[in-house]
Design goal:
By secondary structure, the protein is α/β, with parallel strands linked by helices. It folds into three domains: 206 residues, Rossmann fold (3-Layer(aba) Sandwich); 90 residues, Rossmann fold (3-Layer(aba) Sandwich); 90 residues, 2-Layer Sandwich (Alpha-Beta Plaits), CATH 3.30.70. Helices cover 42% and strands 20% of the residues. The longest helix has 17 residues.
Length: 404
């Protein structure tokens, strides 16, 4: 099997040049001020198809012969690899069949179809989609393009590391998302070969090794284990692996949207989440580079993540009170909130499940605040205005999406 080393990655760079974009490295003043060190973002969310995956896909298809391409290519993916293979197949003039989990984000499914590939939605998760793709490839004699466990794919993703070394030569720490391991392995090989002394940290979604199925907003890296090829490479080249929670990722997505003006999917925000949560400290000297691996997020999921991120940052407050059910009472509560500069996101009357007297009603407010101190100020003001705080059912708009 072909070795994955700096020479292989350099060959891949020549292969994908002109097909994959050379994405920018954007220094973030907001993150630098918050974290106390220089922080730059490798914006693969601005890549063609919105994800780094296109690099490995172009490299893998370039390794196929004309007869193999004519027979067609097959891939299994939750979305980003699917788009990469579809784009590469269209450029190569090869038919593409993509197997995706039935619950894959609709935006990614639609994008794959728009690129000309045939899409088969498979009940279950990635493992079931992968098995279906393997069966189809055997039966049809088509070329299977794995999402990560393939030397050409690893080399293609490693071209990111070459660009980081050229664009940010004083980088001393690089944070990379880890799913199947191709991005982390390839980037680490390239950047460490070019910048001796740099440290590479891989960031995973929390609890994916557990045996029970768990939904996560980091669907792009929702892979339970590294591959046969990528596992040893990650062990050799990546200095440390850390995990972040969905709440931490959501907060990072909101910050990237507000401060860096980047729309980033959950998997792409894990590196920033690791810094914000304190699981990884920025480099004491030189720059810290975070690979922001993708921006393909469904609008509905983005709205849910914004709500989760604001809650995690203390900027979304849920207040439940009991008040007299008569004209003017709700107006007085809302005036109390407005006087202190909070934004009302949702208002809901809650009469069931509460011990209410005749003539009373329960009200639940969802408020957007400036942070935890502002939230505490609002809670004090509501109490001082005479409103009794009691537990109440949360409006549907603030239910954790993982519990739906």
């Amino acid at each position: 099997m072909e070795a994955v080393d700096i020479e292989a990655i350099e060959r891949a760079a020549r292969t994908v040049a002109g097909s994959a974009r050379r994405t920018p490295v954007l220094e973030s003043r907001g993150l630098a001020e918050r974290l106390g060190g220089r922080v730059a973002l490798k914006a693969e969310c601005l890549q063609a198809t919105g994800s780094f995956k296109v690099r490995g896909a172009f490299a893998a298809l370039a390794a196929l012969g004309d007869d193999e391409l004519a027979a067609g290519v097959v891939a299994a993916s939750a979305g980003n690899h699917a788009q990469g293979v579809a784009a590469a197949a269209r450029e190569a003039g090869a038919p593409a069949d993509i197997f995706m989990p039935a619950e894959a984000p609709l935006a990614k499914v639609d994008a794959v179809r728009e690129l000309g590939a045939r899409v088969e939605l498979v009940p279950g998760g990635f493992a079931e989609a992968e098995a279906a793709a393997e069966r189809f490839a055997r039966e049809r004699g088509a070329a299977l393009v794995p999402p990560f466990d393939h030397p050409a794919v690893v080399a293609g993703q490693g071209t990111i590391g070459l660009e980081i070394a050229e664009q940010l030569p004083d980088a001393r720490l690089v944070l990379v998302p880890v799913g199947g391991g191709a991005l982390a392995a390839g980037t680490a090989i390239a950047v460490k070969s070019r910048l001796p002394g740099v440290r590479v940290v891989g960031v995973r979604a929390q609890n994916l090794e557990s045996s029970g199925a768990r939904r996560t907003i980091c669907d792009g890296i929702a892979v339970k284990r590294l591959g046969r090829i990528t596992g040893p490479l990650v062990e050799e080249w990546v200095d440390e692996l850390v995990e972040v929670s969905d709440d931490e990722v959501a907060e990072a997505m909101v910050l990237l949207l507000e401060r860096a003006k980047l729309v980033v999917e959950g998997a792409g925000a894990v590196g920033v989440a690791a810094l914000l949560s304190g699981r990884v400290a920025p480099a004491a000297e030189g720059a810290t580079c975070v690979v922001v691996s993708g921006g393909n997020v469904d609008p509905t999921r983005l709205a849910e993540c914004i709500a989760m991120g604001e809650t995690a940052a203390g900027r979304r407050l849920v207040v439940s009170v009991v008040m007299p059910d008569r004209p003017g009472a709700l107006a007085r509560l809302l005036a109390t909130v407005a006087e202190r500069g909070a934004n009302v996101v949702d208002v809901e009357h809650v009469r069931e499940g509460l011990d209410l007297h005749v003539g009373e009603t329960g009200i639940t407010l969802v408020l957007q605040t400036r942070g935890r101190e502002h939230s505490a100020e609002l809670e004090r003001a509501i109490a001082e205005a005479g409103f009794v705080r009691r537990p109440a059912a949360l409006p549907s708009s603030v239910v954790n999406p993982s519990e739906r």
